[in-house]
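Notes taken during the Thursday session

The instructor put the following on the board and asked us to keep it in front of us for the whole hour. The protein is VOC family protein. We were told not to look anything up and to reason only from what is written here. First, the residues (129 in total):
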Amino acid sequence: MRFNHVANRLDARHFEAVVEMLRTQLGFIELRRTERAIWLRQPGANVDLQFSRSTTAGRDADKLRSQVSFLSETPREDLEALRTWFGARGLAASVGAYSDREFYLDVPEAFVDFVIEAMRPELAAYDVA
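Then, after some discussion, the predicted structure tokens were revealed:
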């Protein structure tokens, strides 16, 4: 077997807003779409994201441990820009920190079981071919 994609859930009411953010702010392209899900890829990446629409009323209390993670030279600033983007569309968002090199963005109304993480590139400098 070969790794293909990771799937997470988005609140159905805000599904299109999150897809729009990924496309316009982070350059993702749409690979496939069904009535309940979408598959996206960021050019240059070799792992895809799948998001499924969810009607779950409650949110995972421990979702800070489930991330869609990005590398960035300026992780806090990049997440603050996304927080502002969501705020301009009426969605409350917050930025927090795991450390001085790892940060996360939560949009509680939209993200059911994950947050978006941004971390410094050196944290992913693994010696793996």
